[in-house]
Design a protein that fits this description.
Helix content is about 60%, strand content about 0%. With about 80 residues, it is mainly α. It has a domain at about 5-55. The longest helix has 29 residues, at about 5-35.
Length: about 80
């Protein structure tokens, strides 16, 4: 039996990896369509969570005002 040429072995390995990655990509596509991303928390829920953490970490403290910080895009 003759040994296979090196280019056929490399081509076979390349095709195997390509097929495996394609199957994994398809699997991830199906998985992400079955379980879509969660919606962001409501502002009241987020405010309650922040207040609870502040009260736990610093007894006696309370949150009086919450402001959302926005990042401005640098101008060129």
């Amino acid at each position: 039996m003759e040994p296979l040429p090196l280019y056929l072995i490399c081509l076979n390995a390349f095709l195997a990896v390509l097929i495996l990655l394609s199957v994994l990509a398809l699997f991830l596509r199906v998985l992400t369509s079955c379980f879509p991303a969660r919606l962001p928390l409501a502002r009241s829920t987020l405010a309650a969570a922040i207040s609870t953490v502040v009260a736990t970490r610093y007894p006696g403290a309370r949150v009086t005002r919450l402001e959302e910080l926005t990042q401005e895009k640098p101008s060129l």
